[in-house]
Amino acid sequence: MSSDRLKQLKERSKLRRQLLAQQFGTTDEKDFSSVLGKQEGINKAESATALNQSEGSAFAKTPFGSRTDLTSGGQFADASPHKKSETPGSSSAKKSKQDGGDKSEEKGTGEEDDENVYTDSKTFLKGTHSENPHNDYCQHFVDTGHRPHNFIRDTGIADRFEEYPKLKELIRLKDEIIAQRATPPMYLQCDLETFDLTELQYQFDVCMIDPPLEEYQRRCPGLTFNWSPWRWDEIVRLNIGQVVAQRGFCFLWCGSAEGLDEGRKCLKSWGFRRCEDICWIKTNKLSPGNTKYMEPDSVMQHTKEHCLMGIKGTVRRSTDGDFIHANVDLDIIISEEEEYGSMDKPEEIFKIIEHFCLGRRRLHVFGNDHTLRPGWVTVGPDLTSSNYSAEQYHAYFSQKPEDCLVGSTDTIEQLRPKSPPANKKGGGRGRGRGDGDKGRGGFGGRNFNQRPGGYSN
């Protein structure tokens, strides 16, 4: 039975090697290993196997069960304490000399051949075949400089929903209605260190803040900046809570270091509850191997940034469908890294906010001329001009309450993801603590006799 099983395994292994040889375009299944850059290791393995076989033929078992070396004459080498020495003219010495000459000739011939050495890890990536297939994107990053997230597919907005036609149609319809209902872009050049945001004389449904952090300068050593970084104790003094409506959202870019904790403190100080973390994963397809984005004392490359999302007031996904559309986009952005020293954020963050919050009143703090966008009021010191007027902006929403919302259509409501309806069994009794017959504090088990209308012994 064991011999049959071994035979099946050998046949299966041979067939597998033949298939791999065809995929790599080689004629013989023994040649495809050279394509993987491992011919040297296979030669060593074959040499070791041949050596073991030759040694195995020179061993025999003694009557006592021990293995004893045998000479060519058939005598036990350790049977006598005196070992037979070889003279220079003996036949065995001549044979050794002859073998040594043959080996030197073989070695000289092998040196002339091109050695196949390990060059890169392409054969170890997903979708390829090797003797030990796995997804070693970390090793590929060391070899080529391409980050592992460069290989994530369908990351762009255009091709993300190619296999999901309903979501693709939903995004198209939402973009159309957002563009139709967007107000003209308005902007105000101001020094935010002295300007009070309450002077805008309006409250907004959503606010995005992109402060110039000290972390941005720290990760670009050797570069001169024409702006001074803001400390977190200065950022927290912005009156964000005063310019956001009672039911609204705040999106705060906080970098990837100490800003994660400091950003949470800012949201709490402004009256927001942190409810989401949008992560921007940066690819380097256009400049692989670029190591400039490293802090002086860092051994890791900077590849991500975080945008904390805070909520103010009470907003429920199941009941406030006129104000939010949840689960339309992802909480992760994968796009190419900006040029060295740039603080620009991906445009997709604007689309995520617009798809999620249906409020038309949007504020962007620390914006610039490149981030001006219809439907947004942009303020910051990097703007070159101003056109903001509180009276004109208020006129866009003063006719009726529905003017503050983007609105929706029947088709959008049918396509967008919704919360499943509550399905309570047993007359609406839940399964929580103290609710119904089960759970701690309920009327199951030892508390059954205290059940209203129940009975006791």
From TrEMBL:
Q: Main localisation, per the record? A: nucleus
Q: Coiled-coil region(s) at which residues?
A: none
UniProt keyword Nucleus, yes or no: yes
Subcellular location(s) of the protein? Nucleus
Taxonomy, superkingdom: Eukaryota
Q: Give a GO molecular function annotation for the protein.
A: mRNA binding
Q: Where is this region: Disordered?
A: 46-118, 412-457
Q: Where is the composition biased (Basic and acidic residues)?
A: 96-110
Q: Does the keyword Nucleus apply?
A: yes
- The entry's keywords: Nucleus
**Pfam families in the cross-refs:** MT-A70
The Gene Ontology CC terms held by the record are:
nucleus; RNA N6-methyladenosine methyltransferase complex
Which spans does this entry mark as compositional bias, Low complexity? 446-457
Protein family (similarity comment): Belongs to the MT-A70-like family.
Question: What is the name listed in the Swiss-Prot or TrEMBL entry for this protein?
Answer: N(6)-adenosine-methyltransferase non-catalytic subunit METTL14
Upper classification of the organism: Eukaryota, Metazoa, Cnidaria, Hydrozoa, Hydroidolina
